[in-house]
UniProtKB/TrEMBL annotation:
GO molecular function: DNA binding
A single GO BP: DNA recombination
Species this protein is from: Actinacidiphila glaucinigra
Record protein name field: Site-specific recombinase XerD
Pfam short name (any one): Phage_integrase
Length: 411
């Protein structure tokens, strides 16, 4: 029997043989197909040495679970569109899905969609990120697209569609963390003074004193606040509204401005983590302010009559309907202008609250509970949010001076 003759191998074992077409062939069992039959991969080469090498490579990829599944190869476009709609959408929050969908539709599919998914390389991604920024996209936008791609490819890797996650290897766009300057105590007092002249004044006191996120503050219901014992619980997060045309698109406007628009997103969801579902004690002045706010809302309810929407929100519109986050943001910007305070993000109020806790010397474990930080990442969050201010630096300098220059010999 010559070495070109085919010998029977045990079930499941790889086989190498010389075919009637004058080429060497190899067959490797790599798994089971969807219909239950063995998944046998075929390779052919001109020499036995070449086909043996190819068979050994298939066996290696099979053993390392890096072999692509059978069937028509995915492109980046077909995989991302399938992933974002059928895999990500049912299992992530509305806001997270919106971020994924924009990255896929606006950036990733136009820029990378034609690549075969299993042949996508880290260099393709790195060149794409540079092109995004050269075209005017911010580094943060490119970085967000990278995170979306890394998540999508991670799912493709788990399902055997790609041998490696190219986004895990590619260098992410560099982000320089912006230094946030919290508002001073004097600026906070000016903001609170101006807020006291406006509707929903307690909204800004809660932001600056307790550091609630925007969604947490706007998601508060009266059932979450106990004014007798003096605490509130954060359990709900107000979501940005999303609308669809009620006219079938005939109005010619965007869905949000359609006269017959329909709300297609729920108003709120449960807070995102166990740490975020927290109980916070209320300072006495804030309890008094919330009592007055409740009385004012009752007057608005009487004035609205049958038009009143009894949604139970602490901070609502004059007819009782929930506040829109975008409107709330513009109210914050107006407040800064009226108070004569420098411009800043609404989230800077949360930085300010964390800094005040640092100035007061509140223990770290209490700070974590108030701010809603997970225990594992609380140290990193404290370093990001809690800024070392002038009074703290002076206090440390005084303590060092007391230690080093307190003895007569040193003096």
């Amino acid at each position: 029997m010559t070495d070109r003759q085919r010998t029977r191998q045990p079930n499941g074992a790889s086989s190498i043989y010389f075919g009637k077409d004058g080429k060497w062939h190899g067959r490797v069992t790599v798994g089971v197909r969807d219909d239950g039959r063995p998944d046998r991969r075929h390779v052919e080469r001109k020499t036995r040495a070449e086909v043996t090498k190819a068979v050994r490579e298939l066996e290696r990829l099979r053993d390392e679970k890096k072999l692509r599944k059978p069937g028509k190869a995915w492109t980046v476009k077909t995989w991302l569109e399938h992933w974002v709609e059928n895999i990500a959408r049912p299992h992530v929050s509305e806001n997270t899905y919106d971020g994924y969908e924009v990255d896929v539709r606006v950036h990733l599919v136009p820029g990378l969609g034609a690549h075969r998914l299993d042949r996508l390389e880290p260099e393709h991604l790195e060149r794409f990120y540079r092109k995004m920024q050269d075209s005017g996209s911010a580094a943060g936008t490119a970085h967000h697209a990278h995170r979306t791609m890394r998540t999508a490819l991670g799912e493709a890797l788990r399902r055997g569609h790609v041998p490696t996650n190219a986004a895990e290897i590619a260098k992410a766009p560099r982000l320089e963390e912006e230094e946030i300057e919290p508002y001073t105590i004097e600026e906070v007092q000016r903001l609170l003074l101006q807020a006291s002249k406006r509707r929903n004044s307690a909204r800004w006191v809660i932001a600056l004193a307790l550091g609630l996120r925007q969604g947490e503050a706007l998601g508060l219901h009266w059932e979450d606040i106990d004014l007798e014992t003096g605490y509130l619980r954060t359990r709900k997060n107000r979501l940005r509204p999303k609308y669809a045309h009620g006219c079938g698109g005939d109005c010619g406007r965007k869905a949000g401005y359609c006269p017959q628009r329909e709300q297609v997103r729920r108003e709120y969801k449960s807070t995102k983590s166990r740490a975020a579902r927290r109980t916070i004690g209320l300072p006495d002045p804030l309890i008094k302010l919330l009592r007055r706010h409740l009385e004012e809302q009752e007057h608005e309810r009487i004035a609205a009559g049958e038009a009143w929407q009894g949604t139970g929100y602490v901070f609502a519109q004059p007819d009782g309907s929930p506040l829109v986050p975008n409107t709330d943001y513009h109210h914050w910007k107006e407040l800064l202008q009226l108070a004569g305070v420098r411009d800043g993000r609404l989230h800077d109020a949360r930085h300010t609250a964390a800094t005040v806790l640092l100035l007061l010397g509140v223990p770290d474990v209490v700070v974590d509970a108030i701010m809603g930080w997970e225990p594992g990442g609380s140290a990193r969050m404290r370093s990001r949010y809690m800024h070392v201010t002038g009074p703290v630096l002076k206090n440390v300098a005084r303590q060092v001076g007391d230690v080093l220059w307190s003895s007569p010999d040193t003096n």
